[in-house]
Amino acid sequence: MSLSVLTTYDSTINANLLRAKLEHEGIPCFLNNEHFTNLMPHYFNILGSGVQILVPTDQLEQAKEIAKLDDGRMTCPNCGATNIKNDLESPKNKLKLILIALLIAVPIGNLLNRYRCLECGQKFKK
User: Fold this and answer.
1) What's the predicted TM-score (pTM) here?
2) Which of 1, 2, 3, 9 has the most CB atoms at less than 10 Å from its CB?
3) What is the pLDDT along the chain (126 residues), one digit of tens a residue?
4) Contact predicate 15/32, CB 8 Å
C-alpha cells in the first residue's frame, strides 16, 4: 500500500482530530512526525516538519473531500485579499535572519510563517 501526504499540521491535537474523523469514515490514516513536532515545536516549517497525515494513495481524493481542505490559497484576515507576501522574501531580510540564527544558534522555523497583505498592509501569522 502506498501512502500520500494529505496535509500537515503544527499541532498534534488538530492532526489527531482529523485522523479520528477519517478513520470514522473508513479511511485508514497514519501520523508521521508526531513526537518530533511535540518535542521540537520551533522546528515547524523547517525541512518538512510538522505532523503529517498519511492516507492510502487510492483514497486521497475521498480523504480530501471528508477533510474539506481549502485550496491552499491564503487570505488576509483583515480584508480577505489574496495578494499576500512572505515578510522574509527580500534577500536582505533572509541574510539578516540567517546571520542571527547562526550567532545565537536557534531555529528560525516559526519566523518563516509571517506574512503581510499587500492590499491593506496587515501583518499576520499563518
Assistant:
1) 0.60
2) 9
3) 799 999 888 888 989 999 999 999 999 999 998 888 777 776 666 656 688 999 999 999 999 898 887 656 678 888 888 888 876 666 777 677 777 777 776 665 555 567 888 889 888 776
4) no
